[in-house]
Amino acid sequence: MRKKKANNNNVSWAVFVVVSLIMAGNIVFQGWAILSAQSQAVDAYKISALARSKVMTAVTSKKYSKEASLLLVGDIMLSRTVGLLMEKNNDFTFPFVYSMEKLAGADITAGNLEGALSSRGSNQGSKYSFRADPRAIKGLVVSGFDVVSLANNHILDWGTEALSDTKTILADNNIVSVGAGNTVTEANKEAVIERNGLRVAFLSYTNLYPRSLQATATHPGISTFDPSAIEARINNIKERGGADIIVVMLHWGKEYEKHAEEWQKNLAHALIDAGADIIMGSHPHVVQEVERYKRGVIFYSLGNFVFDQYFSPETMSAIVAQVIVGSNGVEHVKTIPVTINKTYQPIIASQW
Question: Is the pLDDT of residue 47 over 70?
């Protein structure tokens, strides 16, 4: 009788374990189904907080020392053929498929956003007018971009409505924008990002727009390109202790020229003399020289990063700048080659 009772107990226990496992499996499956449904309901204009938090975890999961890693890239153009490819593949992260993991690994990732993210506005009549689908924000988010420059010669291709949408979409996804705004104060204000106890300030300017498109007290536009005023602003940030590191993003120079002009070198030197640490250049669509000047570093042009300029090897290649900064300024500089493939996706070299 005891043996039979023990067998009955064993059977009962086995049944209990099986039922428990089935119930647990159902709970896990239901939870997965709920999360899956929620993820599919993401608004096209705003990535879910969960997705962004995953990226930010990757971006900031460094040891907490007074040191930060920066990744700087050149021109990012998400419309025209690039936009068509995103739609064709039903994937608005498509341009960044081969680069997102490396980009998201830095403490701060920055680039130049060449054109608006909007479905509004009117074409202002430029020969090349860029306006990307707002859903293209997804690629910037999963790549861990923290700051983008809007001071370029395409941000107003579709007017101030499209500019306003762009700033809103970026802000909604925790990406800081510099170089344009609703007022002259907003357009010229530095953005400060803190990582590992270091405060890194970003300023952004271009000399490629007429003064009429610069922001005023009552009208949206880009920042004010005035070298003396830029130097004064850098000085002011330093004097009031507003940041430990200052990055100046400049959209300048001649397209397709492999070397910067003398006036650019003079300006870059003057800005570092004023207190800037890094000069980050864009617009020529090809890579230009990198210069160490005193305690700073100058990237005259990083070249294209995402762009559909297939007509030359130079426009289909670029560099990513990896800069380690610390309490004493620029500590280490490395440039990594980038190849843009036939579907305009940047591939960062394996020598990372």
Answer: no
